[in-house]
């Protein structure tokens, strides 16, 4: 069942706000919002409710075209199309070079970051960059490791923790404990040190 409560409002994609269903690249929008927030130092679309959220998006990205609005439910389409039309703001104005740290690698330039943002923060999901293509983007592929991306899950997920109610502070403690346990057994690259050590021992034995 599709629900509009899949993510915090500030990072909620247009297709979720307007109720037209969503696919994998709904997360690309959310990550784009977080990426923009990291650069600007503040939330890009700080809506107070779902209507204001849509308003904040349109004021920055502009009013979507008919190719998008024709897929909306009639009442939603009427609302969207009857609002005052907005022009998209320039990415160079929204994210000027001064917001970025000094360039230490050619692929991590301000123009490259803006290009990625412009592909992630697209109202129509049919024209938004896919997860696969985002991973190949020059700003991201620097860290892309297919072995890591395509690796099997580190362990079977234990859903037992979800069977009980927890306060916010309890959730924080549970997450913190999980992170510390992971850090105690893995290096900075996420490699399990015990498994790596066992693999090295086996390799040495084979050589002997």
From TrEMBL:
Required co-factor?
Mg(2+)
Q: Which organism is it from?
A: Acrobeloides nanus
InterPro entries on file: Kinase-like_dom_sf (IPR011009), MAPK (IPR050117), MAPK_JNK (IPR008351), Prot_kinase_dom (IPR000719)
EC primary class: transferase
Q: Does the keyword Ribosomal protein apply?
A: no
Q: Which GO terms describe its cellular component?
A: cytoplasm
- This protein's name: Stress-activated protein kinase JNK
Describe the location of the Protein kinase domain by residue ranges. Answer: 1-140
Q: What GO molecular function annotations does the UniProt record carry, in alphabetical order?
A: ATP binding; MAP kinase activity; protein serine kinase activity
The compartments listed are: Cytoplasm
For this chain, the family text in UniProt reads: Belongs to the protein kinase superfamily. CMGC Ser/Thr protein kinase family. MAP kinase subfamily.
> Any coiled-coil ranges, and where?
none
UniProt KW keywords: ATP-binding, Kinase, Magnesium, Nucleotide-binding, Phosphoprotein, Serine/threonine-protein kinase, Transferase
Q: What catalytic reaction does the record list?
A: L-threonyl-[protein] + ATP = O-phospho-L-threonyl-[protein] + ADP + H(+); L-seryl-[protein] + ATP = O-phospho-L-seryl-[protein] + ADP + H(+)
Q: What is the lineage of its organism?
A: Eukaryota, Metazoa, Ecdysozoa, Nematoda, Chromadorea
Main site of residence?
cytoplasm
